Amino acid sequence: MANIKSAKKRVLIAEANRQRNVAFKTSIKTAIKKALTLAEGSDEDALNLAISNVYKLCDKAVSKGILHKNTAARKKSRLVLAIKKLEK
């Protein structure tokens, strides 16, 4: 642990930011899983809404600096590929 007061504060802030980032990444993973389960069904509107939600979360994560833009693009691309594979 740091000895300087400002360094101690930064350690606490970094931990809070880490937990927030982990929670956001988890919400993205949950949204992807939900979209994949909806892809197995026949509800097209719900599936489109779920895909839209994943895109929104990924783009928001990029703007907040949680994900790199290429990582978000890869997640979106792989989701669409997996859904197309399930629809066959």
| N- and C-termini, Cα separation | 55 Å
**What general outline do the C-alpha atoms trace?**
elongated
Percent strand: under 5%
Please give the domain count: 1
- Uncertain stretches: none
Question: What's the arrangement of secondary structure elements?
Answer:
Elements (H helix, E strand, L loop, with lengths): L4 H36 L3 H21 L4 H19 L1
Helix pairs in contact: 1-2, 1-3, 2-3
Description:
By secondary structure, the chain is an all-alpha fold. The chain has a single domain (5-87), classed as Ribosomal protein S20 (Methane Monooxygenase Hydroxylase, Chain G, domain 1). Helix content is 86%, strand content 0%. The protein has three helices and no strands. It has helices spanning 5-40, 44-64, 69-87. α1 (5-40) runs antiparallel to α2, α1 packs parallel to α3 (69-87) and α2 (44-64) packs antiparallel against α3 (69-87). The longest helix has 36 residues, at 5-40. The radius of gyration is 17 Å and the shape is elongated. The mean pLDDT is 95.
Notable traits:
mainly alpha
Q: Short summary of the structure?
A:
This protein is mainly alpha-helical and 88 residues long. 86% of the residues lie in helices and 0% in strands. It contains three helices and no strands.
